[in-house]
Design a protein that fits this description.
The complex is a heterodimer. Chain A is 31% helix and 29% strand. Chain A is built from seven helices and nine strands; from the N terminus they run H-E-H-H-E-E-E-E-H-E-H-H-E-E-E-H. Chain B has six helices and five strands; from the N terminus they run ααααβββαββα. The chains are: A alpha+beta, B alpha+beta. The interface between A and B is large, with 101 and 83 residues.
Chain lengths: 254, 184
Amino acid sequence: MGACILASSQRQFARIGDSSEKTTLAREYEFSSYTVVLLGNFNPQIFSPAWFEKYELLTEDEGASAAVQIIMPEVAQFTAGGFSIFVDRERFSASAVTSAVGIKDLVLKTFGDYLYHTPVHSLGINRDVHFKLPSQEVRMRLGRMLAPLAPWGEWGAEIEKGSGPTEGGMASITMKQVGIADRPKGYLQTTVQPSVKLPRPVGVYFQVNDHYEIEDRENLAGCEEILSLLEANFEHSIERAESIIDAVLKQVDG
Amino acid sequence: MASTAAKEEYSSLSTSCSSPPESVSSVRDTPRARAFELLRRIQRVGPTSSERFEGVSHSSPELDTAAPSTRSQVASFTALQEWDGYVVSKGHHSFIGRLTDLTSKGAADAEEVEIPYEELSDTTGQDLEPGALFRWSIGYERAVGGQKTRVSRIVVRRLPRWRSSKISEAHSTAVRMQNSIDWR
């Protein structure tokens, strides 16, 4: 691991040793985030950096440096401690760029320890990434592979004639898996689009949406069932999202 | 892939785990639509359809434009090496942790390491106690402008308390296991 350790910390970390058994490196995304979404009934007004700090869900430093966009009865939105929190009456969502496990812990502790009576019927474990491909040609190849023009007949042939800025093709494709064994109800869905966040037309955007629902919404008493699903599935869900994205990108970068 | 990006499609697809996006007209009177209106007025910019109100996703360029100062300046983090660990003991300037290598799926608690408190934020360092769990990641952080920095990050786990129902469940499992042992 020596090569991966910060120079200033080498003395302290020297005992960790070598991890040369690791053969593959993770892909480097231009933008990426992890998001946990809960659907149910929420009271947005209680969600504030001060509330999270009071219950030690954020540290004092994190609470002090929070950036609040809005906190009202209908909606709350703020960023603190590397998390972006959004809440309205039907949705709670927490996202982070750097720490997947931090998001999982935050949601489990917030709702498991303090808001366990909140009725929550659905859970989303989402991975969003923007990846830079080597060139526009490679991106076009990926688009053509995922959505070939031939089945579109004459229109497909017309699209094929374009070049450069007039070159058309796939704008969005979504694949969905249903009937997954690890949940009462739900689906796994992946969307691929050209990225609008990268300045040159070489970016590709993936969103993997892993959706879980409880079986019986009628007798919903709290969020324990959904939190159990989050606790049991989070790591695997993120790993699966990475492998889906990797499988698609391998088609064009070998 | 088309080089002309359809912004509306992008933002509507950042809906995370909800059902397929509703049409603008059908959600105009819902709490979400009202909340969206409030936020839009405060931000004074941006979206005009409620489908775009998924502010936490990176796929929502409108909200990035709306509130750049409140978004993290870190665009992505790529972990090269990760460990799960727990605090064994605390010293004046550092603590001793026992680590399990997640990257190479190493044996549990196989490594011991001394980590200086300067690797943690001030308040996190103060609160750390023996037994505390942490995730240590070393990797590349990419800034919104594209700059890449190698970083070491320690996240102290904030795990939920054990609930009495879970303890009872664990107790029942232990009793079941004990009873299933054939002592002969």
